[in-house]
Design a protein that fits this description.
- The structure is a homodimer of 449-residue chains.
- By secondary structure, chain A is α/β, with parallel strands linked by helices.
- Helices cover 39% and strands 20% of the residues of chain A.
- Chain A is built from 15 helices and 17 strands.
- A four-stranded mixed sheet of chain A has the order 3-2-1-4. A four-stranded parallel sheet of chain A has the order 6-7-8-10. In chain A, strands 12-13-14-15 form a four-stranded parallel sheet.
- In chain A, strand 7, helix 4 and strand 8 form a beta-alpha-beta unit.
- Chain A is globular and about 65 Å long.
- Chains A and B meet through helix 3, helix 10, helix 12 and helix 15 of A and helix 3, helix 10, helix 12 and helix 15 of B.
Chain lengths: 449, 449
Amino acid sequence: MTTAQCFAGRFIHTPAPDQLQVLEQALVSVDSAGVIVSILTPQQDGYSQSVAAAREAGTLTRAEGECFFIPGLVDLHIHAPQFPQLGKALHLPLEDWLQRCTFPLEARYSDVEFAVSVYSSLIDTLLANGTTSAVYFSTIHREATAVLAELCLQKHQRAWVGRVAMDDQGQCPDYYRDASTEQGLLDSEQSITDIRNLPGNTAARVQAILTPRFIPSCTDAMLQGLGELARRYDCPVQTHCSESDWEHQYVLDRFGVSDTEALDQFGLLTRQTVLAHSNFIGSSDMSVIKQRGSGIAHCPMSNAYFAGAVFPLRKALTMGLNVGLGTDISGGPSASQFDSCRCAIAAGRMLESGVDASVSADQRGIADSRIDYIEAFYLATAGGGDVLNSPIGKFETGYHFDAVMIDPAADNSNLQFFEQLDSTEDLFQKTLYAATRSNIVGVWVDGAK
Amino acid sequence: MTTAQCFAGRFIHTPAPDQLQVLEQALVSVDSAGVIVSILTPQQDGYSQSVAAAREAGTLTRAEGECFFIPGLVDLHIHAPQFPQLGKALHLPLEDWLQRCTFPLEARYSDVEFAVSVYSSLIDTLLANGTTSAVYFSTIHREATAVLAELCLQKHQRAWVGRVAMDDQGQCPDYYRDASTEQGLLDSEQSITDIRNLPGNTAARVQAILTPRFIPSCTDAMLQGLGELARRYDCPVQTHCSESDWEHQYVLDRFGVSDTEALDQFGLLTRQTVLAHSNFIGSSDMSVIKQRGSGIAHCPMSNAYFAGAVFPLRKALTMGLNVGLGTDISGGPSASQFDSCRCAIAAGRMLESGVDASVSADQRGIADSRIDYIEAFYLATAGGGDVLNSPIGKFETGYHFDAVMIDPAADNSNLQFFEQLDSTEDLFQKTLYAATRSNIVGVWVDGAK
């Protein structure tokens, strides 16, 4: 394909977990499908001519002044219906949070108008925060799920949208549960075709994803059926895995095997599976996950509230697992993947040092658990791409041009750049720690703003 | 004194750690010194007349629309000279952070012009984030310390400003240390008079505070001398206390008693003492601190990076200690006390649950360690006032009118209020979790904007 658009200026990204790359005065050319076709730096042949040609054609977007481009953020775990609850009810015990707040709220999405209004606001908020790719749990409602997918398409956000399957009568409330296993499976199947057939969804920018809420809320027949749908439709899967002591133990009690192993037995662990949390997985679980090529959505913000432990991130990375980050709206309090990065770093430090001052230092934590800002940013961008098996999260030929323009000098910004004291790497670290949506002055998905 | 100004609208504050109070359509009258003289609600006699009179006199400020007032935030622990380093170098080991970054940066403040430029930017940033009261470490430099105090006075921020004393030749670098114990004590003493005699500082809005960096960087003679100055000048004191395993153990090795006890022996624990961190204090330390009426600046953000444990906040609160919050710029990555609140809540949850998933749940954490959003906000406002022994942080007669106006619907805000679903308490919790400086549309100290 031919070049449709060009972007020029400073680009900063993490092509590998331990590598921060700064491309100064680069020219990134994007084809009409939104895919990067070339990246030129001033030293390379044809650079000046290409810049001049793009300027002449009126297809050049420049990062002016102090502005620079970063890859769009990938949020692997969002409960879309819980958006109205973001930043509230976090002081409640989990049982109250779920039964008194969350389930009644999710049940409201039988009302399609309500869904349109909340989901519009959610997608706008996420895009304004630089989240160009979003992986959504919706609710049990097929119609509201289609609404979410359609709004993502309209608003030009890359998205994975999943109707939530939950049919277990013992675990799910009467007012919010699939009418039957059969009906739930039918709704999940039809939701796949609803989304795949959305008018305008030709490039599959919005994908269906099978979504058993988690093992405790599903019957064996439901899990079996969803595994078959995953295979038959070559459809991605998402679910919660070993989030808390309770969930981890529940699955052990029911199946005699771990959450990971049970999901695998139902055919739900594939190269296209996103496992939220996974805080309590052990080494053998990690081996299974690695073998299947599945990925993990690490959600450090909500883990502080509802998990009871910190995800052993370093161990997972060392084992070579695909890992990205999720906000877990509304189990965590923020819609920003920058906040996920900050919290992932802090949680890693706290896991490394331990937290209880009354325990001696050498017994308190787990050595080498920390990650740095470069790894955190990798997780929030290219790491999410690894999990989703999608060419997103880096500035590389063949990758989608999903990008965010950062203005460090924006109004209402806490980002302070000291020219005499700060390197470009410092500026980037400061951005990771201080950027808010005020600093996000442009967002592109597949090259379109 | 007579009323000089009035403020009308919704006021939300925490008069006690477990109490969130919403005053709807209240009228707060402030005298010419900036002190609250009355608070009227519509049910009370004279309300309508007072509103009308203020409107007529042109002295009425209203929180319009969705806007509301909260007390100004109190930041108990800020290293002013480290502001250029905020949000960078946090991936480095502590020793590198200190020797390669922090000390060389602090040494630069022998240059007064540099101090003026950085400190102006810092105070502007803090005020824009709603921090109306700030407790500052400056550097060893008397002149730059006076500059900081003068700028606080000019920019109308309530402040405690301390020249840092550090004279131990074994612990402090040659290029950044008091020339001698005598010179250091003289500089600290003169810094008190510098600040107290600042033109325009008649209401003591900016106060001097004696600031031994921490015990390891001071000789016995310095600590002794500072204790005497504290008594002679009735001057507040701040220092670090038992921040890390290393510091805690260092003092035990040097004096055979804990950091707290050693500070007490030097006369440095008074009703006007702010102890930063104090992560490793035990029950007997807490008793001493309580007896002296000293207070603690809990800095959860920097603790995640440099402390090695979580401050036992719940225990300190149960014992009735005065506790507030600090950003610890630049040991923590943010200038916002809202971020301190968020991190204090998350750290409390992580201390309660523990962090290591391989340990059984009942052994992993310390029961009842959590705090909720109301307690966190109390710490960031009235709790700071308790520590400083100052009438700030609440809307009460006799308190300074230090306030922040929040606009939940500001541009670039992540705060989403759903009228059908959210109570005022929910709105407040959402504000605590989502507010950035974009939402801060007005800041008053002593009634002046």
